[in-house]
Amino acid sequence: QEALQLTDAAIKRFGEDSTLAGLKRDIEAQLEARRREEEAQDAIRQARDFLSRNDARSAVQILERALTQSPNHAQLTELLAAAQAKSREQQREQAIAAIAAEAAKLRAGGRLEEALRRVEGALGQFPGAEVLVHLRESLLADHARAESLTLVNRVQQEGKLDAALQEIQKALRAAPGDH
């Protein structure tokens, strides 16, 4: 800033000179580059702060804005890629949690088959998602128990007590940790 003031004073005193005008342009370019670098570093600090608080979406917004001013800034570009990956992962986790919550509500309402269909559909979208895999296994076990109880009830109503007891034993063997 001081160099720019000195150059302006020299131009006023000695007149418009190509050397002084070139020097002024160089100084202005350096000041602009310094300002952009300071803004980029400020954006990096803010983005890292958001990332440390698990707010990747805000970090992405800040970095994208900063890259419009400094499109070739390597640190901004690198951190943006990391923030975008983190944001995608957070969105994935939120979607999985929402599906698991929805399936839990369906299960609590006795709609096991619907819950199972929802979880299986979600596993197509999020293959191998551990929460969904475990939920699917649990729903399948619940469904199998419900079917066994329906069968036990039916054969009991038909007066086939031995068949009902055999079905209970089969269900207990199928789910040994549940009793």
How many E-type strands?
Answer: 0
Percentage of residues in DSSP E strands? under 5%
| CA-atom Rg in angstroms | 33 Å
- Spans of at least 5 consecutive residues with low confidence: none
Distance between the termini: 80 Å
Secondary-structure element string: HHHHHHH
Description:
The protein has helices spanning 2-14, 18-52, 56-69, 74-108, 112-125, 130-157, 161-174. Helix 2 (18-52) runs parallel beside helix 4. The N and C termini lie far apart (80 Å). The mean pLDDT is 88. The chain is an all-alpha fold. The protein has seven helices and no strands. The radius of gyration is 33 Å and the shape is rod-shaped. Helix content is 85%, strand content 0%.
Keywords, separated by commas or semicolons:
single chain, 179 residues, mainly alpha, 7 helices, rod-shaped
Write a brief structural summary.
By secondary structure, the chain is mainly α.
Write the SSE topology.
Layout (H helix, E strand, L loop, with lengths): L1 H13 L3 H35 L3 H14 L4 H35 L3 H14 L4 H28 L3 H14 L5
